[in-house]
Amino acid sequence: MAPSEQITFYTAESSPWGHRVHIALEDANAKYTTYHIDPRNKPEWYCKVNPLGKVPAFTFGGPDVPPDQPSPESAKLAESAALLEFIADVFPEAHLLPDDPVLRAKARAFTEIFRNYVDSEFRSAFFMGKHFDGLLLALEELQRALPPSGFAVGQWSIADAAVAPFLARMLLFVRVGLGTYGEEDWQRLREALASDRFARIVRYIQDVHERPSFKKTWVSDDRQLELWKNHPGLRRKAGPAS
């Protein structure tokens, strides 16, 4: 049975960390109120929700109050990975983690492979212009963790919600050439990802896009590009990656 406590979800439209939590909330069929925080102009009261000022965050329980007047009686929760686990715990009927402890471990391992390998290489390539060979090797590691078909552990889980926002943005940025590379390098990266070498993970990302919770929470390709095109870390360099 779904909890009766109120949930207020604080996020930012551009945030992939917020997006992963938004997906899980939809998967859980949760009742929640969404409040968007401007990352460049955070209101002073938001420190009452998360003293670090980061999104996403929750208030959980307590009285039903306006989002910009968080009650001291509500629990304040933050960090996207912790929020995913929280949603899985509070909404067990959504089966966001498998009942089988082996599959639960594999779901968490999949998320850790993404965090430890893919995430840092993605940032280094797209935001700092490091050659993308490291990113391709990291994607191979993640791909090896996938079953032959379906999602990370067969059934949809918080492992998929955790990585989907980042992989979807990555493929979008590659397709349009949004980032630090010149066109020659973008084309080489596009060709690499279109090769048989990455057929499984590309199929996985396509399957993610068809998930109802992803469709509902993805703000459209055009809007994503609008949100990201002026990011200072994505300015294109003049020369090829080295």
TrEMBL record:
Domain GST N-terminal, chain residue ranges per copy: 5-95
InterPro entries hit by this protein: Glutathione-S-Trfase_C_sf (IPR036282), Glutathione_S-Trfase (IPR040079), Glutathione_S-Trfase_N (IPR004045), GST_Omega/HSP26 (IPR050983), Thioredoxin-like_sf (IPR036249)
GO cellular component: cytoplasm
CDD domains registered for this protein in UniProt: GST_C_family (cd00299), GST_N_family (cd00570)
Domain of life, source organism: Eukaryota
Family matches, as SUPFAM superfamilies: GST C-terminal domain-like, Thioredoxin-like
Name of the molecule in the record: GST N-terminal domain-containing protein
